[in-house]
Design a protein that fits this description.
about 350 residues, alpha/beta, DNA Methylphosphotriester Repair Domain, Arc Repressor Mutant, subunit A, 3 domains
Length: about 350
């Protein structure tokens, strides 16, 4: 449990990893902020902490105009959302800097947003998304020629070179390729990232997860896949099901899952899914249920390698003494999820 000092130190560090965990309200200004707000920090005696923006508003405070605490953590700006909708509707569309300027959108601002959230420029994002669209079209039976021009390439050779630079093989070998379509989205606990193949959801994490990049690299190797930004029906489904979960309207998930791993790891992940909503097990109880009483440490390590947070509910496993341990995205997130489930399981 975070103390007042813990929260104030987080506020001073402007640590956005704790957004969704608490809200800081300032008595002298009447304003409340997210923990990561860049505004000048108040003295500790002038700060009151609340669990939510709604609670702060109920006490008469108003939201900060700089950090916008009423918006979901990691929520996509409306101008970015409109750009992505256009790309969804037209696989061959190219949005240039000149187009952005004509719309009174600063290319530098767009570039910085994509660098922060997708680790690439907006133009690189568009190129990789076009390649993902091409892969899906060819996987559905479209010819190379038809696909190349439909997704916006001016020549077959240019398309082939771009495709080979991403996949390391020619477009004619598309059926030998696996693509993990990737998307980021907002949640009450901060930005999340999801990945899906044609078989199901293979990745769901908070973006602040420790060693996330290493986890993604391991997933690519296990599936022999390339990760590319783009749309996928399973990405839409997981966002819908998670929204229902966070609203207390869903306790089980129906989306198909892809969980490459050792036989032991897969057994552990399957066992996690049997822990009832609103309940917790100890690592020892998990081991006994698996009839592996002496494998508590190995089971805990396998829990930590789970790539599908919330849906494969490793947050429901706690220490034998009742302490929360071992959550790569942060113990506070684990506590928040358990509180959410206890709240709605009792209704």
């Amino acid at each position: 449990m975070l103390t007042f000092k813990d929260k104030y130190d987080i506020l001073l560090r402007k640590d956005a990893r704790y957004e969704g965990i608490f809200i800081a309200a300032v008595k002298t200004t009447g304003i409340f902020c997210k923990p990561g707000c860049s505004a000048r920090k108040p003295k500790p005696e002038n700060v009151v902490f609340y669990d939510s923006a709604e609670e702060a508003m109920g006490k008469g405070f108003r939201p900060c105009l700089k950090c916008r605490p009423m918006e979901k953590n990691g929520e996509m700006p409306s101008f970015i959302h409109r750009l992505l909708e256009e790309l969804d509707n037209d696989p061959g569309l190219r949005i240039t800097d000149a187009v952005l300027i004509k719309r009174k959108l600063a290319p530098g601002r767009i570039r910085r947003w994509f660098k922060k959230h997708y680790h690439m420029t907006f133009h690189a994002y568009q190129r990789k998304r076009r390649i993902n669209n091409a892969f899906r079209e060819m996987s559905g039976g479209s010819s190379i020629t038809r696909t190349a021009f439909h997704v916006g390439f001016g020549s077959i050779s240019g398309f082939a070179d771009s495709y080979r630079s991403v996949f390391g093989k020619a477009p004619s070998r598309a059926k030998e390729t696996t693509v993990i379509s990737m998307a980021q989205f907002a949640s009450p606990l901060g930005p999340m990232i999801a990945g899906a193949t044609t078989e199901g959801l293979c990745l769901l994490e908070f973006t602040n997860r420790i060693r996330l990049e290493k986890e993604m690299d391991d997933l690519k190797k296990r599936l022999q896949a390339v990760m590319l930004p783009g749309n996928h029906p399973y990405l839409g489904q997981v966002q819908q099901e998670l929204a229902e979960y966070f609203e207390g309207m869903r306790q089980t998930f129906t989306i198909p899952l892809v969980m490459p791993g050792s036989t032991f790891e897969q057994a552990v992940w399957q066992q996690l899914q049997s822990i009832p909503y609103g309940e917790t097990w100890s690592y020892k109880e998990q081991a006994l249920c698996m009839q592996r009483a002496n494998a508590t440490r190995a089971i805990g390590a396998a829990n930590g390698r789970n790539r599908l947070v919330i849906i494969v509910p490793c947050h429901r496993v706690i220490g034998s003494n009742g302490n929360l341990t071992g959550y790569a995205a942060g113990i506070e997130k684990k506590q928040w999820l358990l509180n959410l489930e206890r709240k709605y399981s009792s209704q």
